[in-house]
Specification:
The complex is a heterodimer of chains A (210) and B (837).
Chain A (H helix, E strand, L loop, with lengths): L3 E2 H29 L4 H14 L1 H5 L3 H15 L3 H14 L7 E2 L1 H19 L9 H16 L4 H19 L22 H16 L2
Antiparallel strand pairs in A: 1-2
Chain B lengths: L2 E6 L2 H14 L6 E5 L12 H11 L5 E5 L3 H12 L2 H4 L2 E4 L3 H13 L4 H9 L3 H7 L19 E6 L8 H11 L5 E6 L4 E5 L3 H5 L8 E7 L3 H13 L24 E4 L2 E8 L2 H4 L9 H29 L5 H14 L2 H14 L3 H17 L4 H23 L15 E5 L4 H9 L4 E4 L7 H9 L3 E3 L5 H6 L3 E4 L4 E4 L3 H24 L4 E2 L5 E8 L2 H9 L5 E5 L1 H4 L8 H12 L8 E4 L27 H6 L1 H17 L2 E5 L5 H20 L10 E5 L2 H5 L1 H4 L5 E4 L1 H9 L17 H17 L2 E4 L10 H6 L4 E5 L3 H8 L4 H11 L6 H16 L1
Helix pairs in contact in B: 1-5, 2-3, 5-6, 8-10, 12-16, 13-16, 14-15, 15-16, 17-18, 20-32, 23-25, 25-26
The chains are: A mainly alpha (210), B alpha/beta (837).
């Protein structure tokens, strides 16, 4: 099975930026229903800021690349998603210091490390109507698939499906974290915007990493 | 001053709150506002990096409180915290307090110079006055100060004239003014029947809801209430400054009397005070001459042993069934020592023939056995030494305590306990740890006694010079000390306790953070590497020094190896003892071994000395070794052989002139010849150095250096010799400070000359671990230090904060004008305050 190179990782982030740009209005709409309507715009701002640094980020190892992505998100996104996605990439970067490629298994460990960071930072769990509802099952599906000897393509496609299922599961939930929690019962009936942008993260991975 | 950081999604909002606080509280608050993202930070949002930088911009030793609006502001602040270094993390707090009200309460406390804990607590309680007023939630009755038992308080009742009552700003002025006086003031709203509360909490005073015209009662408990009353009157008259008449600031008077408590070993301890009978740590010295006296001592011993055995058996009975086999064996072994006929006979002989009293005879015999065991080759036999010590202690506590329970118990105290004693002895310091004693209050005592040094090594908080408070200490239920500052609280009020407990927690977590970093070499902010070694006197000390991050062992004191021996140790015994002690240092190098340094306050039984009128100016250190040439040869042979196994360098104590160094060199060369001839593995030459601890050695340094490979400045002794003041004297405390300009001038001369000649010079006195002294010593050019293990992490942390180039130039211009130690200390404090602002 082939490894993931650092240029592939950057392509992944670029693809994610493109998808967020496309879905910006949709995400903002979702957020307007249950939050303050800035998720799409915030994520878009952060990812565009990363593209500006393309020259710097492309020529480094994966650890430095992910760290650069993390710091840029943290300082430009502004909302909770900045701190959370930033933490995700920052934690993931700690396992990739000095590496120029990753095995599919190592990539899975990176994702898990990032998830652990988000759980700790957001103090949320599956069922709280947050991005974790999509992230956690997506990563699990990926890991299980790789462990059972399937290809990267199969693993990422299963991750997208699992994250999608996770996203749908957020629709009936009542938010318990973040500003959506101020809405209480009113938050039920809408999918979580953070979980939606998380599905896009998996989708762009599936399109670029295999 | 505690720094404040305000975080909001909206930058203008954060800035407006900041503006409000500066106008209402003080324009000079340490305060930064942040918020907003994107271009010009015009978008709503928060940025963790910006928050991190904001924290850095108001950061000081006192800490920083971060107030946020909500949601992602909290996440961003938490993320920012993670980016700080561990040292800073321990001193930065996030609070759930509301931004405006919390900021207000926090700013007032910060401006008063309150601790981070107090500032944070004030912020958390900040909604209470508002809730009281709006009455939309039940907050209970306004808090009355618990048991306002102020002795002999003066009462002042007066009507408040401020049109808006005693709202936050005037309340702030009131508290600020009163904090300048000693004693306490209670304040009560007689009109609304609220209070009384202590006039030191803004929240409490605000909850009294004092309006225009309300009658307010002040109860003043102060040694000198008159100026307090006058102050309050004038405050009320000029409407707490709202009539635009400035209130003259009042300054607290600090009494610099030398008999005030002083710092001995850092750390905060809170607990029940227990007085240690003076006899427990010093054996009775009376001699037993007549036959009836001998009979009485022997009987006393017999019944003490019988009691001890009975208690021992009861303990085994209780433990039966829960013991493992090896534990049972230990108990069996101890039981046998108690009843050993040979031991008993020997003790009786000591009483009958050497006229020792029962306790002294028992101690001498048992500790002799213990020492023999400790020198055994077989590890199992070595472990039995502990059994002898245990048995010795058990019987001794009965002999000395007289069964009255006044001796130290065998079991650790169940609740935190502070030990009150005349002077902390090394044994006592050691026992304190075993008994889980939280801290030590010396009634007399000094800061460079060996007990004090050990306390610092063990991290045992301690103060000295508390004699004035003896009576109050004896009747107190609870006492607290801050060893870093030498402060003592007797039955402190709950809020003081809470603050101390908070600070204790902060210090513990700071200590842990510093410990984590201490394994790395320390470098100043401008990149100058500084070596920090550890002082040691045993294998345990070396281990402790290494755990605490010692870069090397800068001073290994030989005397601790020998002090319990009754007979002169031969070459083999010495070599064995050193090898065992240096084992944990096998891979750190080099170890500086100081030749046996006895005389003065550290006599050894096997090197008897004629009585001297002034032992510190007598035959000590190298003088004593040269006076005992046979022993000296044996000692040096053992050390040359030790050098075969470890990378050591030898340090000669108490050098006065060059002839002494030449004599030691000559002897070493001769012994090297002998050992080579006899084909005994050894090493020579090894680096040879001298302690610079006599004024003569310091003044003659240019003559000594050509014959030396390194020098080590012993500031403890050097200070007492330069200032002609005994180390242990509580009355001469002011002259025991190694930061005295005279001592500094001499140290500087030594270091400059040594640097010119390319000879390494280090400092191995306690002064190096003093946070106020370290920047000064660095500024004078010192780059190598060796200190007690416990001080290393904090010292390295401090080095990392210092900017050397700045200090050196400021010091050079001020140094000629320092007249006394306090001038130097003040300079050091100012230096720090300037660098933090």
């Amino acid at each position: 099975m082939s490894n993931i190179s650092s240029s592939q990782i950057f392509t992944w982030i670029e693809r994610y930026a493109a998808q967020i740009a496309e879905q910006k209005d949709y995400l903002t709409q979702l957020d307007a229903a249950i939050g303050d309507g800035d998720h799409g715009a915030n994520m878009h701002r952060g990812l565009q800021a990363i593209l500006v640094k393309k020259a710097d980020l492309q020529n480094t190892d994966i650890g430095a690349l992910l760290k650069g992505v993390a710091m840029t998100l943290i300082s430009t996104v502004g909302g909770a998603s900045g701190a959370l996605y930033g933490t995700f990439f920052l934690q993931a970067s700690t396992l990739a210091g000095g590496k120029t490629e990753l095995s599919p298994r190592e990539f899975g460990s990176l994702l898990e490390k990032g998830l652990a960071g988000i759980v700790l930072r957001g103090k949320a769990a599956v069922g709280d109507k947050t991005m974790i509802d999509a992230l956690q099952p997506g990563i699990k599906a990926y890991k299980d698939s790789i462990e059972s000897g399937e290809t990267m393509e199969q693993a990422l496609s299963k991750a997208v499906s699992a994250a999608d299922v996770g996203l749908s599961s957020t629709t009936p939930l009542i938010a318990r974290k973040g500003r959506a929690s101020y809405l209480g019962e009113r938050s039920a009936g809408h999918p979580d915007p953070g979980a939606s942008s998380t599905v896009l993260l998996f989708r762009s991975a599936a399109e670029t990493l295999c | 001053m505690v720094g404040l950081v305000l975080v909001s999604h909206s930058r203008p909002l954060a800035q407006a709150v900041g503006d409000l606080l500066r106008r209402l509280v003080d324009a000079n608050l340490q305060l930064t506002c942040c918020g907003g993202v994107g271009e010009d930070r015009a978008e709503l949002g928060t940025d963790a990096i910006e928050i991190q930088e904001a924290i850095g911009s108001v950061y000081s030793e006192d800490g920083v409180l971060v107030l946020m609006d909500m949601g992602s502001a909290i996440l961003s602040a938490e993320t920012a915290l993670e980016f700080l270094n561990p040292e800073q993390q321990g001193k930065v707090r996030l609070t759930s307090a509301p931004l405006v009200e919390g900021g207000m309460a926090a700013a007032v406390q910060a401006q008063l110079g309150a601790s981070l804990v107090s500032v944070a607590n004030a912020a958390l309680a900040s909604l209470l006055p508002k809730q009281d007023q709006v009455q939309d939630v039940s907050t209970g009755a306004p808090a009355a100060y618990p048991a306002p038992a102020l002795a002999q308080s003066e009462i002042l009742e007066i009507n408040i004239r401020n049109p808006h009552g005693l709202h936050l700003r005037p309340a702030t002025v009131l508290i600020k003014t009163l904090s300048g006086f000693p004693g306490e003031v209670l304040i009560e709203n007689r009109t609304a029947n609220r209070g009384p509360v202590l006039a030191q909490s803004l929240v409490d005073v605000a909850r009294l809801q004092i309006r225009e015209g309300d009658l307010v009662r002040f109860s003043i408990s102060s040694p000198d209430p008159k100026p307090v009353i006058e102050s309050i009157r004038s405050l009320v008259e000029n409407q707490f400054g709202e009539l635009a008449q400035p209130v003259p600031p009042s300054e607290a008077v600090v009494d610099l009397n030398v008999s005030e408590p002083f710092s001995v070993s850092r750390g905060i301890a809170i607990g029940r005070p227990i007085l240690l009978d003076t006899i427990v740590h010093s054996l009775p010295t009376y001699a037993v001459e007549s036959a009836p006296e001998v009979k009485r001592e022997v009987e006393k011993l017999g019944s003490a042993i019988a009691e001890a055995i009975a208690e021992f058996d009861r303990r085994i009975e209780r433990l039966k069934g829960s013991l493992d086999r090896p534990e049972e064996e230990i108990f069996d072994a101890q039981r046998m020592i108690f009843a050993d006929p040979t031991i008993l006979k020997e003790v009786q002989k000591q009483i009958q023939e050497h006229h020792l009293n029962a306790a002294a005879a028992w101690h001498k015999t048992l500790s002799g056995y213990a020492t023999d065991q400790e020198n055994a080759e077989d590890p199992y036999l070595r472990a039995r030494a502990a059994d002898f010590r245990e048995v010795e202690r058990t019987v001794l506590s009965r002999l000395i305590g007289g069964g009255t329970g006044s001796a130290l118990p065998d079991q650790p105290f169940a609740e935190p306990t502070l030990l009150i004693c005349e002077e902390l002895t090394p044994t006592l310091a050691e026992q304190s740890r075993r008994l889980s004693i939280a801290g030590v209050i010396q009634l007399g005592g000094g800061i460079t006694s060996h007990g004090a040094i050990l306390a610092r090594a063990l991290g045992l908080p301690a103060i000295g010079g508390a004699r004035k408070s003896r009576e109050r200490l004896l009747s107190a239920q609870q006492v607290a000390i801050n060893g870093s500052k030498g402060s003592l609280w007797i039955d402190p009020p709950p809020d003081v306790l809470a603050e101390l407990a908070g600070r204790q927690q902060i210090e513990l977590s700071e200590g842990q953070a510093a410990l984590l970093k201490s394994q790395e070499r320390a470098m100043t902010r401008d990149g100058i590497p500084i070596q920090v070694g550890g002082n040691a006197g045993s294998a345990d000390d070396i281990l402790s020094a290494r755990t605490n991050g010692a870069d090397f062992i800068g001073l290994f004191r030989s005397e601790f190896l020998f002090q319990d021996l009754h007979h002169e140790p031969d070459e083999h015994q010495q070599l064995t003892a050193y090898r065992r002690a240096l084992e944990p240092a096998a891979d750190v190098s080099p170890v500086t071994v100081r030749l046996l340094d006895v005389g003065g306050d550290k006599p050894l039984e096997f090197l008897p000395q004629a009585k001297e009128a002034n032992p510190f100016l007598g035959v000590r250190g190298i003088r004593l070794l040269r006076a005992n040439p046979r022993f000296f040869r044996v000692h040096l042979r053992a050390l040359l052989r030790l050098a075969h196994f470890f990378r050591i360098q030898l340090l000669i104590p108490m050098i006065t002139e060059v002839s002494e160094i030449l004599a030691v060199r000559e002897l070493l060369t001769e012994l090297d010849g002998d050992l080579t001839k006899a084909n005994v593995p050894h090493r020579w030459p090894v680096p040879l150095g001298a302690m610079i601890e006599t004024p003569s050695a310091a003044l003659m340094i240019d003559q000594l250096l050509p014959h030396l490979d390194f020098v080590s400045i012993g500031t403890n002794d050097l200070t007492q010799y330069i200032l002609c003041a005994e180390r242990g004297s509580a009355q001469l405390m002011a002259f025991s400070d190694s930061l005295h300009p005279a001592v500094l001038r001499m140290c500087e001369a030594v270091i400059r000359t040594a640097q010119e000649r390319g000879v390494k010079a280090s400092i191995c006195g306690e002064i190096a671990s003093d946070p106020e002294a370290l920047p000064i010593l660095l500024g004078l050019g010192h780059r190598d230090f060796s200190v007690t293990a416990g001080a290393i992490p904090a010292m390295k942390a401090m080095i990392r904060k210092v900017n050397l180039s700045g200090i050196a130039s400021q010091l050079a211009s001020k140094q000629p004008f320092f007249e006394e130690a306090s001038d130097v200390r003040k300079f050091s404090r100012d230096l720090f305050e300037r660098s933090e602002n």
